[in-house]
Amino acid sequence: MTITLYHHPLSPTLAPVLLTVRALGIDALVTQKEVDLCAGTSIHDFPSIDDGGFCLSDSHAIVAYLANAYQDGDFLYPKDPKKRAKVDRWLHFSSSILYSRLVNMTEPLLNKRSKVVSEEMSERAEAAFKMIQDALGPGPWLCGDDMTLADLCCVSLVAAIEVFIGDSNHYPKMSSWVEHCKKHVPGYMEVVEAARQRYVTIITSRMNS
Q: Which of 37, 39, 54, 142 is the most exposed place for a label (fewest CB within 10 A)?
């Protein structure tokens, strides 16, 4: 079965869903929509999916659903409660910290209330990077030795935030993790870097208009 994935060009959260689709080998029809066709969702709910009539929005809910429904084994979203709790911790961090701070930086630009990112918002984004730096353990991935949904969600938003505050080279453990993702996450360059460049183009056009 092919799922339909609806997205909006201004949504920075399409990338983790696309990475999950690739990692799981799911057939997906990716469709850009100004208005979501899924019942019960609105224009603010991109990305969203329609999986045989089951409609769902919010990227973090989507990636968890896809892993639960389609993964062979539990490499992306472990079934063991303790291992899954570690992944969930990072998913909550991605949605409550990384995503919110990215939105707080970009919303004034998109709404043309400002042409620069405020110092306060930049500092809050830097603080989020420091949280990742301080939390990373000895393994190459956020949760240890295996790639999980945590990596796919967090690295996508980190890449978007770097557009505004620069790269993570001054956070060595975080920088190593990002480089590891670039090399080992299937489709990273085609998905995350492409999304980042689209985001740069859109934001730059809004800032210069």
A: 39
pTM: 0.90
**Strands laid side by side in the 54-57 sheet:** 28-32, 3-7, 48-51, 54-57
Looking at the 3D structure of the chain, how many domains does it have? 2
Q: Over the stretch 98-107, which tens digit does the pLDDT of each residue have? A: 999 998 888 7
φ and ψ of 108, to 5 deg = -60, -30
Q: At 103, list the tokens.
A: 């939105």
Residue 76, judged by CB atoms within 10 A of its CB (0-12, 13-18, 19+), counts as buried
In terms of domains, do 65 and 106 share one? no
- State whether 97 and 155 are in the same domain: yes
Q: What span, in angstroms and rounded, lies between the C-alpha atoms of 147 and 74?
A: 11
Q: What range does the domain containing 85 cover?
A: 81-208
User: pLDDT tens across 105-145, in order?
Assistant: 887 777 767 777 788 888 999 999 999 999 999 999 999 99
Q: How many CA atoms lie within 13 A of 115 on its CB side?
A: 5
Q: Which region, left, alpha or beta, applies to residue 6 given φ > 0 means left and ψ of -120 to 50 means alpha?
A: beta
Residue 48 shares a structural domain with residue 15: yes
